[in-house]
Structures are given as structure tokens and as C-alpha cells.
Amino acid sequence: MLWPKAVKDRLKTGNDREIVHSYPYRSACPSTVWADLIADATDDLFFGGFTSYFLWTQAPALPDALRRKTQSGCRVRFLLGSPDGEVTRQREEIEDVTLTVSTRIRMTLEQLDKMGEVEGLEVRFSAPVDAMNHVSLSVFRFDDEALVTPHLARLVGHDSPLLHLRRCDDRGMFSRFMEHSEELWSRGVPAAGADAVAP
Fold first, then answer.
1. Residues 6+ positions from 66 with CB-CB distance below 8 Å
2. What is the pTM of this model?
3. What digits encode the pLDDT tens for the residues 62-78?
4. Contact call for residues 123 and 190 (beta carbons, < 8 A)
5. Apex CA 140: angle with CA 136 and CA 141, to 5°?
6. CA distance 192 to 81
7. Is the C or the N end of the chain the one with fewer CB within 10 Å?
């Protein structure tokens, strides 16, 4: 009685309190959101896109930002798909675009390689057994916030929807997605061992 229905409809009271914003397309999320989340993170940056190549266009001076983060004690991790993996090849056939999945992964690897040795920065390929689960869901963590993209059918990442989440408790959507990404990370193969994940 104290809260009219119109007010209740605008207040988030359940698990949806963790949804900061939703976007029908990943490309609709402003680059300032990515840049601000990276800048504000102090403990844990996790980039769990299968290719993650677009990050260098979303966050200005990303290599410098990542170096500053690691130097201040922030853990920085990239979980990528194997450019030579069977799931990567299958996804390329599904998407059928000029900028192939393996090319996009190699673009990310090239950018990371240009950074040289950076203590505190880790790069892994998802294990072959996890590749299908990885390619269908991208999770990017910034301490207690995350950007999550479930990939739709034949669409490339920028045409799939995106959720901006913020942790409210340990039983919500944020934690569910973090458990998923940590499980994939735990079985990942160091990117230096590319031959180990080739089909």
C-alpha cells in the first residue's frame, strides 16, 4: 500500500538487482563503459571472450592501462579460444565472415605479444573440451562488475546481446557467470603451448 505499482515496477528487488544495464547488441554498449570498468578495477580483470580482439578499439591505450593494473597488483587474465581448434574452424563456417574467428584470435595474440613480458598478465586457451561452452558465452570481469555476452546462433559477437552485471551477493547471476568462467580458466592451456590445443 505504501508503494504504488508504478514505483514497484521501477524498483529492482530480486535477482535482477544485479542487472545494471542490458543492451540488445554488444556494439550498443558505449566504449566509455568498457574504459571506465577497466580503469576502476583494482583486483581482478578477466577477459573471457573467445577472440576479444575488439577490446583494443573499446579501451583507449589498453596496453598502458593493463601494465598499470598489473604494476598495482591487479590480476589480468585473457582466456581465448585456440586459433587452430576444431570449434574455431566450425564457428568460422557458421559465421562465414571475412574477418574469421582464428584471425580475430591472432589479432589479440599479436596485441598481447607487442606488450612483451608483463608480470601479472596471464593468457590461456580454453581446453578443447570447453571450447564449445566458451565460444557460446563471453564473460568479462572487472572486480565486482561484469559484461556478459551470450552469442546467438550465427551472429558474431558485436551483434549479440550484452548484460552489465554488478555483484549483490554470492548467489546471484554475477556469481553464476564467474563460476562458469573460473571453471573454464582452471582447465585452460597456457597460450605459449598453442600446439597442445591444436586438433
1. 45, 76, 115, 118, 121
2. 0.87
3. 999 999 999 999 999 99
4. yes
5. 140
6. 13
7. N
